[in-house]
Amino acid sequence: MISSLAIIAFAALIHASFQLSVSMLTLLSGHAIGNKTAHTKLLRLTSSFSLGVAVMTMLLLSFIAFVLQHSFGSQAPLVAWAVACGLVLGLGVAVWAFYYRRETGTSLWIPRGMARYLSERTKATKLGTEAFGLGLSSVIAELLFIIAPMAISALVLIQLEPSLQLLGIALYTGVSLFSLLIVWGLIGSGHKLSQIQKWRESNKRFLQFAAGSGLLILGFYVYVDQVVTATALAGGSL
Amino acid sequence: MMAIHIVKRDGERPTEQFVRSKLHNSIRAACLSVRSPEGEAEMTAQKVCDAVLHWLSTKPEVTSSDLRRKAVQTLEIHHPEAAYLYKHHRLVI
Questions:
Q1: What is the distance in angstroms between the Cα of B27 and the nearest Cα belonging to chain A?
Q2: Contacts with B28 from chain A: Cβ below 8 Å
Q3: What pLDDT shows up at residue B11?
Q4: Which of A107, A141, A235, B54 has the CA that lies 20 to 30 A from B91?
Q5: What's the pLDDT at A167?
Q6: Please, which residues have CB within 8 angstroms of residue A160's CB and are 6 or more apart in sequence?
Q7: Cβ–Cβ below 8 Å for B92 and A108
């Protein structure tokens, strides 16, 4: 049980190192402060955005776990674990190579049309409900990167008892929001956006390396834990 | 002063006339974004607009990228932090 929750927490930590939601929160705050928005309204916007991210993360993980449980019951076949591990390992290498674009700033390897759209929507966001919707869509836009840690977490979740499944979903959501909540706190406490953005830019290669390495470690560990061990045990019992 | 035409990014959109207030507001917003006091933001925007207008005075047509580059160059002198945000605004996502 502890190792299952540890896998979920580690996958969520990898999720937290992905930066689209943080970028959008930075941009949203920049526009709001630049338009002389009152501090309470700024807090409302950023809180609504973060809440939107949390809700969509929770819904998405629950949905993936529901589909997997519906398809496989409480024990996924080895092939499902192998496919999920392959996805995680492949994405780990891809994140190492491609996560940030090779230019200044913190532009990500997401389709440019989508990035422009998100940027325009962020600029146009004035209400808490819009910010909430933006938070929801930021998770969808990042799906390409977060699908792998989510898939592994969902496979782990379906093995747990229902009450622990709820704990697992809450744990994943809480840990995955870690970086977003730090930036939310910094903005709320009056830190300059330029300092936050400069830090993000100067550490982007480290974050990219950490995310990619985390995915490779997760994929390798889960493959050994769930596929190799199960195969060896099955071989030994024959 | 004669009308100065701004050629938009990628040349996809039609050219438009230079409007000082548009540049002023964007510089002011960049300064406010880094939590500068309003008076300082206004003054910085004035200085940058004056410098850009002086630079534009001999040019009938410039690209929006050149205009932005000149604005950043001047803003870096008066307010480096705001210049950083102004420069990287499109490179956040």
A1: 9
A2: 34
A3: 62
A4: B54
A5: 97
A6: A1, A4, A168
A7: no
Q: Is B93's CB within 8 Å of A27's CB? A: yes
Beta carbon pairs, A and B, within 8 Å: 66
Mean pLDDT over the full length of chain A: 95
**What would the two tokens of residue B85 be?**
């945000």
Query: What was the pLDDT predicted at B16?
Result: 86
Which residue on chain B is closest to A120 by alpha carbon?
B90
Q: What is the pLDDT of residues B51-87, one digit of tens each?
A: 999 999 988 889 999 999 999 999 999 999 999 999 9
A191, with CB counted inside 10 A (0-12, 13-18, 19+), is middle
Whether residue B13 is predicted with pLDDT greater than 60 in this model: the reply is yes
Selecting from A104, A119, A192 the residue whose C-beta is nearest the C-beta of B93 gives A119
Q: ipTM of this complex > 0.90?
A: no
Distance from CA of A91 to the nearest CA of B (A): 20
Q: What are phi and psi of A158, to 5 degrees?
A: -70, -15
b/e code A36-54 from CB counts within 10 Å (16+ = b): ebeeeebbbbbbbbbbbbb
What's the sign of the alpha-carbon dihedral A41, A42, A44, A49? Answer: positive
* CB distance A50 to A184 below 8 Å: yes
* Residue whose entry in the numeric block shows the structure tokens 């940058």: B48
Task: Give the residue among B26, B18, B21 at the shortest CA–CA distance from B62.
Answer: B18
Q: Which two tokens stand for residue B36?
A: 């500068």
User: Looking at residue A2, what is its pLDDT?
Assistant: 75
**Quick check: A142 and A115 in contact, CB under 8 A?**
no
Specify the length of chain A in residues. Answer: 238
For B15-55, what is each residue's pLDDT tens digit? 888 999 999 999 999 999 999 999 999 999 999 999 999 99
Which sequence spans correspond to the domains of chain B?
20-91
Q: What is the DSSP letter of B15?
A: P
